[in-house]
């Protein structure tokens, strides 16, 4: 599985970012520019996924890793963000809410 750190993400990547946390988690604060597609509903929204390579983030990296594994098996070029939004915030990076 492809993975990057929150520091790599913060350094700048020209790729879409999918946040797979639940809507209330996303609303409480997320990485700027992220799009919310909750893990619990992603199977219903596969058509909303980008056609190009994209990154996937959650709170700590577990849910996003499972999503990346599943999507990669379906032919998507997805990369997990290790440490997730929790590490992003702990690193002092800006969030949107």
UniProtKB/TrEMBL annotation:
Entry GO MF terms: thiosulfate-cyanide sulfurtransferase activity
Rhodanese domain boundaries: 11-97
Pfam families: Rhodanese
InterPro entries per the UniProt record, alphabetical: GlpE_sulfurtransferase, Rhodanese-like_dom, Rhodanese-like_dom_sf, Thiosulphate_STrfase_CS
Source superkingdom: Bacteria
Protein name per its UniProtKB record: Rhodanese
Provenance organism: Microbacterium testaceum
């Amino acid at each position: 599985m492809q993975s990057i750190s929150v520091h790599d993400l913060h350094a700048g990547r020209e790729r879409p970012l999918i946040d797979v946390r639940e809507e209330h988690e996303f609303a409480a604060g997320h990485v700027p520019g992220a799009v919310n597609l909750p893990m619990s509903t992603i199977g219903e929204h596969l058509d909303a996924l980008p056609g190009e390579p994209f990154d996937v983030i959650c709170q700590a990296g577990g849910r996003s890793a499972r999503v990346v594994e599943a999507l990669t098996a379906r032919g998507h070029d997805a990369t997990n963000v290790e440490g997730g939004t929790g590490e992003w915030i702990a690193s002092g990076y800006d969030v949107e809410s």
